[in-house]
Amino acid sequence: MAWNLFLTVGYSNLKAKIANGSAAVSSDENGVINNTIEGYTTDITETTAQVMPKLVSITASNDQSEHVMSGVIYASMGTDTWILTASRWVTENEEFTVLFDNGLSCPGELYGKDELTDVSLILTHPDFETEPIHLGASTAIKQGEYVIALGGRNLHTQTGEVSFGVVSKPGQYYVGSLSDENEWITEGLLTDINLTENLIGGPIVNLSGQMIGILTTALADGRNTATAIGINEVVLAAEQIRKNREITRGYLGIVGINVRDLELYQKSAMNIPLEVTGVVVAEVIEGSPAETAGILPNDVITNLNDTTISSLETLQRQLYLEEPGTAVSLNVVRNGNASPIAVILR
Predict the structure, then answer these.
(1) Would you identify the CATH topology of the domain 254-344?
(2) CATH fold match for the domains 54-124 and 138-244
């Protein structure tokens, strides 16, 4: 009786889903029922409608050229509105016009930029209220998760661009050039979404409409799919720009993985004690301060000076607080043994 009741209730629920357009059902020649869930299409349209009012189109022009890119309303305070965009076409000698989703536009000024994270802030003073985009947590994004890429409205067609796909490879990525010591390890999100120029500078969002990254070419490296700087990194850079109009941070030179994200067999293979938390070194960049100091792959960084390093996010935040040339002390667990290592950041 209980099994019959379970089947009856399950079948009734399935019929309700089909009636509401959220599922399709078919059966093969053997009578096996196949269900296809289609409700995510509704989620995408609703999320798009929620996010689009927070997007802008930015025209950057000078005597020689004119470029149009996307941007995001990042923060508002009084009459000040900061627009977040990529640095690809942003230079000091350009004039900026910001077109909001309501069809009104106003001039903007370059407030500050960071080439390595491809983050730029443009300050505008619209005479109407603006609503910043909702921010998510890029460190919570998993491989294979659905995401949406959006661009601001086209000046001529008045329609934005929307693409849908999955995160193919989240993680840390090296950017910059060793030759001029302009280097950084940034948090990135690679996707299978086709990258177009209109999307650059726009957001990549989760299905809840929270921004989890800014679409950029900084991580492209020959790819034609959309790449983004993770929002956790973007916020660190943007807030320092808002405060100082420029970026200062200490470069360490390691690609890391959160110990908490490792499986038990991985910890065992790396000889990491179960009680240890922190950031395990996956790669040491050649010529970096970390290599000079003797840090090795599979080392676990648990402290930077007096700060406990519980995650990559914590480590990145601390590096943004340190000046280049500063000597710091890292507590490192190697083969189960903890020891301090002095590093001069660059």
Answers:
(1) Pdz3 Domain (2.30.42)
(2) yes
The percent of residues above 70 in pLDDT, for the chain, comes to 87
What CA–CA distance (Å, rounded) separates 288 from 293?
Answer: 9
Q: What is the pLDDT of residues 236-262, one digit of tens each?
A: 999 999 999 999 999 999 999 999 999
Tokens linked to 104: 């009104």
Specify the CATH number of the domain 138-244: 2.40.10.10
334: exposed, middle or buried (Cβ count in 10 Å: 0-12, 13-18, 19+): middle
Nearest Cα residue to 108 out of 128, 122, 126:
122
Domain 54-124 carries which CATH code?
A: 2.40.10.10
Rounded CA separation 274/245 (Å): 43
**How do the domains of the chain map onto residue ranges?**
54-124, 138-244, 254-344
Distance (Å, whole) CA 300 – CA 287: 20
pTM for the whole thing? Answer: 0.83
CA atoms within a 13 Å half-sphere pointing along the CA-CB vector of 39: 10
| CA–CA gap between residue 323 and residue 5 (Å, rounded) | 67
